[in-house]
Design goal:
Layout (H helix, E strand, L loop, with lengths): L1 H8 L2 H12 L17 E5 L2 E4 H15 L5 H4 L3 H22 L6 H9 L5 E2 L2 E2 L1 H7 L3 H27 L4 H11 L2 E9 L12 H10 L5 E2 L2 E10 H6 L5 H10 L9 E10 L6 H19 L4 H8 L11 E6 L5 H7 L11 E3 L2 E11 L6 H34 L5 H7 L4 E2 L20 H7 L2 H5 L7 E2 L4 E11 L2 E2 L2 H33 L4 H7 L10 E7 L8 H7 L8 E5 L5 E10 L6 H29 L3 E3 L1 H7 L1
Helix pairs in contact: 1-5, 2-5, 2-23, 3-5, 5-8, 5-23, 6-8, 8-23, 9-23, 10-20, 12-16
């Protein structure tokens, strides 16, 4: 069974990560999974066939997700692909089960999910244009909606299990006590290098290790690629733009290069509502006219505003309104303000607020940027616009020719006047380095390069979209199978490994003897003095004192081991990163505080999530066990 194969290949923490990965229903692999035509199936779940393309897309997505978190050798070892397939199978088993049980998702739920997706929003609002650009055909939209409905269905199932998960108060407090527990620790280091002279590695041991662990000394499979690339940016750089074109664009689009005009003004407001009686309006207008005459005779505007303005927001500041742009004031006020010069005082201006007297204080902006300051930017804009249609037309032509003549790139190169380039030899992890080589660290390209169609059948790849209007089509021109390095090449490395293991084993033997003496009743200091034969009398005893799980002063390997020791165990040893052996003594244990309210809330939330994950995993495993599953081992092995 595939799951058994995964367990055989993965151990330790990674094995637990795998269990969570494959047991919990997962989200959408990506739109490409749902706009790709059918092809050979790698597995059958009930009546559903998992296509090789769906599998490859899923592997690519998961590789991208974990490339910075998991060692690249592990990603490329085949374990990830088995995990992904197991996850796809579990996902489909869940879908089959929920569908047969009558669960469904409404059209309105799918619509809401799409409208709330940031990928389809422009300035916080759903954009039909973005949606159509992302999913250009009715076929892809329909399949995307179906896949989204499936995702919602799986999430509802997971949410239902989460809602039914319960964690007791006592359970939470027990975990809190463990989290905040303190342990009084002493330790000593046995230096492995003290035993270097006593360990001699024989030729027979080296040969045996080489034969038994041959897989460690494999050169990975490598390929050399021929490729054609098309970049809108590079196309644009080759387009000649005349000075006349630059100047015309500058003139036609002058608004783009004009700084926004802003004005600073003060005003005196005489309030009267628009529906007030004519007599009331006339009275207020006469009052305003009187103040205006005083201002025109030399009265101080700021003082007059403080005394007469009915605007509570500006009166105390002498009527100061600060800077404002067009569109920020009511139209009648704005029309007058933007027609005035600094220092001018307006006639009465009537708005819905009443009558205003405006003083223009200062203006800024409104200047047009000089042509020579923006000409380079205009050139880039014109170049980019002029190649837009050409880029997409050429991209479509590359795709068509790559499919129609799958055994060569020559026809494409001739038709589009492109140069066929070649990569260096590379493995499945690609090449990293300068900008040219970054092309060959792109996961989409690498997935295509090692796909069955390109690697095994010798076809051109489909058009690979690298993003930023940059596409490439590839084919394999040289393939070197995986091979074993000769013994002479790795002999020194094997001897170093065996020597390191040997001296660490010697140090561990000493540690075991010391622990026996400690268990017989001796103290760490007493035992160290008794064992002169092994240099134990030179051991440095370190009193770490009371430490917590998050202790930053004590070496991490000491803290980790100290808090994984059972309560009844006082003595233990652990290996350090350098191969030395640490002997650890637990002198006392103090339980942590279980009354911290903030910690209580966090712990309970984490426990609920953990229990929900476990319950979900158990449910998925049960449903999977009742589902008919067939795996195409030949295809899976070829993918590895």
């Amino acid at each position: 069974m595939l799951l058994h194969s995964i367990r055989e290949s993965a151990t330790g923490w990674f094995a637990w990560v795998i269990v969570i990965l494959i047991s919990i229903p997962f989200a959408l692999w990506g739109v490409n999974s749902y706009i790709t035509p059918p092809n050979p199936s790698i597995a059958t779940v009930g009546n559903y066939k998992v296509s090789i393309q769906e599998f490859q897309n899923a592997v690519q997505t998961e590789s991208e997700k974990y490339k910075d978190k998991i060692n690249s050798d592990l990603l490329n070892s085949g374990i990830l692909k088995k995990v992904v397939l197991e996850k796809l199978i579990n996902n489909r088993a869940m879908i089959n089960y929920l569908s047969s049980a009558g669960f469904s998702v409404s059209k309105e739920q799918v619509d809401l999910q799409i409208r709330n997706d940031p990928n389809f929003q422009l300035e916080g609002q759903f954009s039909e244009e973005l949606y159509s650009r992302y999913l250009p055909s009715a076929y892809s939209k329909s399949n995307y909606r179906n896949s989204l409905a499936t995702q919602i269905l799986l999430q509802q199932f997971s949410d239902g299990i989460s809602a039914s998960s319960i964690v007791s108060d006592a359970e939470t407090k027990r975990v809190m006590q463990l989290i905040k527990q303190k342990r009084d620790v002493s330790y000593a280091l046995i230096k492995a290098q003290n035993y270097a002279d006593s360990v001699v590695i024989k030729e027979e041991e080296i040969n045996n290790y080489y034969q038994n662990f041959e897989s460690q000394f494999k050169n990975p499979e490598q390929v050399k690629l021929a490729y054609l690339e098309l970049s809108r940016k590079l196309m644009a750089e080759n387009v000649e733009i005349t000075d006349e074109q630059l100047e015309k664009y500058y003139k036609d689009n002058s608004a783009q290069y004009t700084q926004t005009e802003r004005r600073k003004a003060s005003h005196i407001l005489f309030t009267v509502t628009s529906d007030a009686a004519d007599e009331e309006k006339e009275t207020v207008k006469l009052e305003a006219q009187s103040v205006l005459e005083q201002l025109n005779s030399g009265a101080d505007f700021a003082e007059s505003a403080k005394q007469n303005s009915k605007d509570p927001g500006s009166a105390d500041n002498g009527g100061d309104l600060g800077f404002f742009s067009k569109g920020e004031m009511v139209p009648a006020f704005e029309e007058v303000a933007f027609a005035m010069k600094p220092g001018e005082i307006s006639d009465l201006v009537e708005t819905s607020f009443g009558f205003h007297i405006i003083k223009m204080v200062e203006l800024e902006g409104g200047e047009v940027q000089a042509f020579d300051k923006v000409s380079d930017k205009i050139r880039e804009t014109l170049q980019f616009e002029m190649v837009e249609n050409n880029f997409f037309e050429k991209s479509e032509l590359i795709q068509t020719l790559a499919y129609e003549q799958p055994d060569s790139l020559d026809a494409i190169a001739t038709e589009l006047e492109l140069t066929i380039k070649q990569s260096e030899l590379m493995g499945r992890e690609g090449i990293s380095g300068n900008s040219t080589e970054n092309l060959f660290s792109n996961q989409k390209l690498l997935t295509a390069a090692f796909s069955i169609s390109v690697l095994e059948e010798g076809n051109n790849s489909d058009l690979i979209d690298l993003g930023d209007d940059h596409v490439v089509v590839i084919r394999v021109v040289e393939r070197i199978p995986a091979n074993t390095k000769p013994l002479e090449e790795v002999k020194a490395d094997i001897e170093t490994q065996l020597k390191s293991k040997g001296i660490t084993a010697k140090a561990q033997e000493v540690a075991n003897e010391l622990i026996k003496k400690l268990e017989a009743g001796g103290s760490l200091a007493d035992v160290a003095q008794l064992t002169t034969e092994t240099d134990a009398d030179d051991l440095e005893i370190i009193e770490a004192g009371l430490i917590e799980r998050q202790d930053m002063k004590t070496p991490v390997y000491i803290v980790r081991k100290a808090f994984t020791m059972p309560r009844e165990l006082k003595y233990a040893s652990t290996k350090t990163a350098t191969g030395d052996i640490a002997i650890i003594t637990i002198n006392a244990i103090e339980n942590g505080d279980s009354e911290d309210k903030a910690l209580y809330a966090n712990v309970k939330s984490a426990l609920l999530q953990n229990k929900a994950n476990m319950n979900t995993a158990l449910s998925v495993m049960q449903i999977r066990s009742e589902t008919s599953v067939t795996i195409n081992d030949s295809l899976l092995n070829a993918e590895e």
